[in-house]
Design brief:
Chain A: GO terms for molecular function: ATP binding; biotin carboxylase activity; metal ion binding. The complex is a heterodimer. Chain A has 17 helices and 20 strands. By secondary structure, chain A is α+β, with helices and mostly antiparallel strands. Chain B has strands spanning 2-5, 10-13, 29-30, 35-41, 44-49, 54-59, 65-67, 72-76. A four-stranded antiparallel beta sheet of chain B has the order 1-8-6-3, with no helix packed on it. The chains are: A alpha+beta, B mainly beta.
């Protein structure tokens, strides 16, 4: 059954992205919004809009009964969850399925399985995908010590039910593990109601590489890899497609491993397999799967020409994949930077102002995904992502140059943004050389590299 | 008497956490720099501190209420 009336249960820039993709497919769009989001761009662009509750996320974008009621009222036949909020909630996907609607994503069972670190790891191993040496299943504090002895220190302790970097600790030796494991257990119990732990060898200073996959429930393809090593507080700030550090043979086996896992779990929709890459050893290890569209999906779209959001809507409506692996070709290099309503010179303090002026970056190979308009009060109730500037060029060098031009052309008045951070990064010699890893950006900021460029970038 | 205003738009909280008592109660002495509440803005919590000294009269908005920048949060005598 092809989707005809799509309900978008999200906000911000991804809601705009989904509305636009659905419209191109000729699908009627219904945008959900909280009381604080009546003025947002996706509400204006959608065919219709409906309020799902008060400003706090728990009363609106996380309120499953309210969303289902609104979807029923507006006669939607499918729900797109975007990213964040309920996009990876098996309970939500199941409730949507049970209400007789299509969830634009994989089945609730797949979300549940891949959302559990231990089950995801087992699925990966079964599909022949390399994983970081670690515990075979969820373990308690005593077992952690014997497993760590076997796999070797340093080890990383994680909550088995966790996500988004919460509950993660690194122990350099047995003494540290004895102190940290009980803390991790207590925190996991408090945060997730599940004190199960999981430990693995800590790969220090790895690069973060991920593979975009698409599946229709039977077949699966990859759309190559992205590198997202520039992170602050485990949040990605700058993403690229492809990963310059990989040789062709490694890239091929990495992408093939992602397809093998996607096929093994009968994946439907768009998904991402995240890996740590140990550059010195030229080894990659699967860490987790994200069963949703991701913030950084545009860089993949730029280098492959595939519309990932449209494709996920089509396959979830029952269509087969519209392309074969051979038809997915990669050209040039793309970079995305995340613009957040934060003051990079004030320790990234959130700063949600009223947009007084908006001048979008333009030009061939430049894309600006956002939800801003002049006069718009950025709501303070949600995360600070305002949009993304994406550039595509023949080479990585040319892409960085194009990024600088785009950021200099862009003007967002009335609010703070992190544009200055990206300009400083773009002018850094190590960033230009691609010589970074996931532990690179925070020390760079602590060393004052951003404030040193303030005169030029502010 | 003076007002304490919100430095940012966000959600204003009287208490450090839901289980704890409010930062200040009516009649409490307030010194410059004393914390009187929290503003949650974009998933970050920012302290609201008194910029003048006085005696706490009361909160002007309910706990966990959305506020705009410049909104009066509390009054001092």
């Amino acid at each position: 059954m092809a989707i005809e009336r799509l309900f978008i249960a999200n906000r911000g820039e991804i809601a705009v992205r989904v509305v636009k993709a659905a419209k191109v497919l000729g699908i009627h769009t219904i945008q959900a919004h909280s009381e604080a989001d009546t003025e947002m761009l996706a509400v204006k662009l959608a065919d219709e809009a409906i309020c799902i509750g008060p400003a706090p996320s728990k009363d609106s974008y996380l309120n499953i009964p309210a969303i289902l009621e609104a979807a029923k009222t507006t006669r939607a036949d499918a729900i797109h969850p975007g990213y964040g909020f309920l996009s990876e909630s098996p309970a939500f996907a199941r409730a949507v399925e049970e209400a007789g609607l299509i969830f634009v994503g994989p089945s609730a069972d797949t979300i549940e399985r891949m959302g559990d670190k231990v089950a995801a790891r087992q699925a990966a191993e079964a599909a022949g995908v390399p994983v970081v040496p670690g515990s075979d299943g969820r373990i308690d504090v005593t077992e952690a010590l014997s497993v760590a002895e076997k796999i070797g220190y340093p080890v990383m302790i994680k909550a088995a039910a966790g996500g988004g970097g919460r509950g993660i600790r690194i122990a350099k030796d047995e003494a540290e593990l004895k102190t940290l494991a009980p803390q991790a257990k207590a925190e996991a119990e408090a945060a997730f109601g599940d004190g199960g732990l999981y430990i693995e060898r800590a790969i220090l200073s790895p690069r973060h590489i991920e593979v975009q996959i698409l599946g229709d429930g039977e077949n699966a393809v990859h759309c190559y890899e992205r590198e997202c090593s520039l992170q602050r507080r485990r949040q990605k700030v700058w993403e690229e497609a492809g990963a310059m550090c990989l040789d062709d043979a490694t890239r091929e086996s990495l992408c093939a491993s992602a397809v093998a896992l996607a096929k093994a779990v009968n994946y439907r929709g768009a998904g991402t397999l995240e890996y740590l890459y140990d550059e010195a050893a030229n080894e990659f290890y699967f860490i987790e799967m994200n069963t949703r569209i991701q913030v950084e999906h545009p860089v993949t779209e730029m280098v492959t020409g595939v519309d990932l959001v449209a494709e996920m809507i089509k396959v979830c409506g029952g269509a087969k994949l519209s392309m074969t692996q051979d038809e997915i070709q990669k050209t040039g290099h793309a970079i995305e930077v995340r613009l957040c309503a934060e003051d990079p010179y004030m320790n990234f303090m959130p700063w949600p102002g009223v947009v007084s002026t908006l001048k979008e970056p333009t030009g061939e190979g430049v894309r600006f995904d956002h939800f801003l308009s002049e006069g718009y009060q950025i709501p303070p109730f949600y995360d600070s992502l305002l949009g993304k500037v994406i550039v595509h060029a023949d080479t990585r060098d040319a892409a960085i140059d194009k990024l600088v031009n785009a950021l200099e052309e862009m003007e967002i008045g009335g609010t703070k943004t992190t544009a200055a951070l990206h300009l400083a990064l773009a002018s850094d010699a190590e960033v230009r050389a691609g010589a970074f890893h996931t532990q690179w950006l925070e020390p760079w900021l602590e060393d004052g590299n951003l404030s040193a460029t303030k005169g030029d970038a502010a | 008497m003076s007002d304490i205003q919100s430095p940012l738009p966000g959600t204003f909280y009287h208490k450090p956490s839901p289980e704890e008592p409010p930062f200040k109660a009516p009649g409490d002495a307030v010194a410059i720099g004393d914390q009187i509440g929290l503003i949650e803005v974009m998933k970050t919590f920012i302290a609201v501190n008194a910029e003048v000294a006085g005696t706490f009269k009361g909160y002007s908005v309910e706990d966990a209420t959305p506020v705009t920048a410049g909104a009066v949060l509390a009054e001092l005598d």
